[in-house]
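Title: Prediction job returns without error message
Component: structure pipeline
Severity: low
Priority: P3
Assignee: unassigned

Description:
Job completed but the reporter wants confirmation the result is attached to the right record. Sequence as submitted:
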Amino acid sequence: MPKNESLIPVEPLKQFLSDLFLASEMTDEEACFCAEALVQTNLWGIDSHGVLRAPVYLKRLFNRAMNPAPNIQKVRGSGAFELLDGDDGIGFVVGRTAMVRAIELAQQFSVGVVGVIRSNHFGAAGLYARMATDQGLISIVMTSVMPNIVAPGGSRPITGNNPIAIGIPTFGDFPFLLDISLSNAAGGKLLLASKKGEKIPFDWATDKDGRPTDDPDAAFAGFLLPLGGHKGLGLSYVVDILSGLITGGAIQHELKSMYKYPDDPSLTCHFMIVINPLILMSQEEMQTRMTAFYQTIKSSPMWDDTKEMMLPGEIEHRTAQARLKTGIPIPAALREELIALGQKHGVVFPG
């Protein structure tokens, strides 16, 4: 473990965060969910979207840029396709509400689609994809981000690093879970590198003039580069269209960054698709076929025989098993920030 990190036990960390969310006047149940979502993300090893984000979420809850008690309602749609208004709530609560509804629709119609307008950052998209796989359902989750990606060679952002997560149940130890943003690196990785005092690869981001940089602070003030060049760029446009354009929500520069506009709702939009695969085959047959599919991948030889072929979601599963025992690594700068935040609101940090 790096010298500038501390290991914090999982349950005390959850309780600390839950108490902070509760202090913002969220309900006890929703505060607990937000804390669990952050810690679960760290358990998977996705530290860029976990506890690192707690300070900005809490700041926005306390200043009411995010509504701690949103009235989330259906505003349009029929049959298997509905649109929810998130009432500027924290994205964890709005995202969970949308996925719960998409699951209900899929259980009724075999497919459920839910769009969301007027939400905020909802953390790792895989959190919601995993909610569906836990019910034996396939899920596709996406969310829009204000423009922060430049086209290769461009000097101004034209789309966001819009995340997509795809979850498929395996009925085994862990589901297939692909969770990616459509930039070479998520913005949270820039923030994490800054907290750790580390440089970043030149193909992650540019400075404010569109020139590639290895300085995470210059990159955070600049723009991200798309995953796979024009391929990631095109997919990001698709997320813009599905999440924001067809739902009537905010798109492109109408969206607001929670860092650049800390006092304003982000107007983030989400789009969730849930599919029931068990209308085509039994759970036992799908489990057998997924096991055979996985075994083919796992048995594929590596040129370096000390390496292992990994499946989408496998690294996260293994990381979670280890961190449940050892605790969550918290960088020193973040630890001091959390201690100060706890002192401000009468909550004691557990380490």
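Comment from assignee: result matches the submitted record. Residues 91-109 form the longest helix (19 residues).
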